[in-house]
Design brief:
It is built from ten helices and no strands.
Length: about 200
């Protein structure tokens, strides 16, 4: 039986581009489990304060990136800041339906209706709608729901869709040709739909 569509794992962090570049490099190098553990926990390549934090963050980033293929990992590792950010964004969308559907169902509507902002209350309304669509969705405490909102809005700010952390102003974003080429070549139709909400 399939699990819930909506999970709280995106609350583990925003896009974390410098760290994602490092993880993409490890994936492209094809390191063994032992080499992975040594890099994360002993060498502390992510420069976290504790091995536990390093393990959690590396696991989230790895899960995001592994939802895509090596060609996208190269964009993350070697691309410009904009390309790497949009490539990680694409992976985060595929990894988290909570993020993807928010873009597809809420952010797209705001652009379509020529609204200029994305009020935080829309997140609470969205979570209620998610529960209607997904009966298996966990019941989260308010603190968890707020943490998820913080993370999603931070991601939208990193990509450029939200430009002001107080008024949550919306801004159209053009996705780079390199990222779009990867998505089209790999038939990532859901991600393409979600990542282009301002068109």
């Amino acid at each position: 039986m399939a699990g819930p569509r909506y999970k709280a794992d995106i609350g583990g962090g925003s896009l974390k581009i410098p760290e994602s570049r490092i993880i993409a490099g490890l994936l492209l190098d094809g390191v063994s489990d032992e080499q992975w553990r040594h890099a994360i926990e002993v060498e502390n390549v992510l420069q976290r304060r504790s091995p536990g934090t390093a393990k959690r963050q590396s696991s989230l980033i790895r899960a995001r990136l592994q939802s895509m293929g090596a060609d996208l990992w190269r964009l993350v590792r070697d691309g410009s800041t904009q390309v790497a950010t949009q490539a990680v964004f694409a992976a985060a969308i595929k990894h988290s339906a909570l993020l993807g559907d928010f873009l597809d169902l809420v952010v797209r509507d705001q652009f379509r209706m020529f609204r200029t902002d994305l009020p935080r209350k829309m997140w609470d309304q969205y979570l209620e709608q998610c529960r209607n669509r997904d009966p298996l969705m966990p019941v989260w405490q308010d603190s968890t729901a707020n943490k998820l909102a913080d993370c999603v809005y931070r991601i939208l700010a990193e990509v450029g869709y939200v430009t002001d952390s107080k008024t949550y102003r919306l801004k159209p974003v053009r996705i780079s040709g390199e990222v779009m080429s990867y998505l089209r070549e790999n038939d990532e139709q859901y991600v393409i739909r979600c990542i282009q909400v301002s068109i």
